[in-house]
Amino acid sequence: MRFGLIAHRLHRQGSDSGLLRWLRAAEPSVRGLNLGLHAVGGTYDAVERYGLLDSFPGLVRYPNGFEGGLTRLVSHIVGGVNPAHALDGVIFLIDPVDPSSMYPEALALKRQCVTHGKPFLATEAAALEWLEIEGLHAGLAPAHTSGKALLDAMPTQVVALIAHDALKTQMVEFAGTHFDLLSRYQERVATGTTGGLLNALAWSRGWPRDKPWATPYRSGPLGGDAQIAERVLDGTCQKVIFFEDPHVARQHEADIQLMERAVCSAGQRTSCMNSPAMAWHWAQALTRVV
């Protein structure tokens, strides 16, 4: 596997920055998976400066962002001009107040990851958890223990389930297949219509009808994304599973970005999955541990 690696300046300055914390925790998995990390200039330089991944051949330097590094990552996510350069996903540790997160290259990088069903990991928590998931799929022994820890944490956590209109049926299918896994969470929250569909599914499975399986908020265009964003910022929602449709115009784009930026603000404790492909891969790995 090969992943793009980018960290905004906030996350790569200082020995306790997000990039450094993630790499210290993830280095055994990076080496065990032989994960190629194709890092944009400043991020690569930070890894080298702090002496991490020493002598690791999978660390590759891309140009700086202003020299086209992010544009190259976008091309390599979609397959690249040379198929040998294709990437399997991106770790992009985002500072939500860094204006470059709204540059066309950054927006296109996320959109193409979602379009092609490849992981877009925008927080420290998401990047660490994803390597544990890949370790489970690869059969790495230490990852089994990590998978159990992920399961054990669920009864103390809250997960948000959100889906755009064209993907609501897929969300119901996902929740139906992994109903027992998702039921481990202390609470599930959802935007309006999605929450109604998920509760109907749960009631059909015998869930008590006087108790919602997913706490429903307003629909996305009417403020449901903002309500979930508040819970993320308060530390009362630790995971967002968001089936995002990149092919439709979204009148409430600002609300969606608000929720995603809240996730990045709480990046040490919160993760987000933006596509059905990511969610299925995550759930299938954890099902191996149950």
Helix/strand order: EHEHEHEHEHHEHHEHEHEHEH
Number of DSSP-assigned strands:
10
For the record, the CATH class of the largest domain is Alpha Beta
CATH architecture of the largest domain: 3-Layer(aba) Sandwich
Going by CATH, the homologous superfamily of the largest domain would be Methylglyoxal synthase-like domain
Low-confidence stretches: none
Structure annotation, total helices: 12
Compute the CA-based radius of gyration: 19 Å
Q: Assign the structural class, choosing from mainly alpha, mainly beta, alpha/beta, alpha+beta, or little secondary structure.
A: alpha/beta
The largest beta-sheet arranges its strands as 3-2-1-4-5
Q: What is the rounded distance between the termini?
A: 26 Å
The CATH topology of the largest domain, please? Rossmann fold
Shape: globular
Mean pLDDT: 92
Count of the domains: 2
The percent range for helix content is: 40-55%
| Percent in strands | 5-15%
Largest sheet: number of strands, sense, barrel closure? 5 strands, parallel
Please give the structural blueprint:
Layout: E1 2-7, H1 18-33, E2 36-39, H2 41-49, E3 59-61, H3 69-77, E4 89-93, H4 104-115, E5 120-121, H5 124-138, H6 141-153, E6 158-163, H7 168-177, H8 179-182, E7 187-190, H9 192-204, E8 215-216, H10 224-234, E9 239-243, H11 253-265, E10 271-273, H12 276-287
Helix pairs in contact: 1-5, 3-4, 5-6, 5-12, 7-9, 10-11
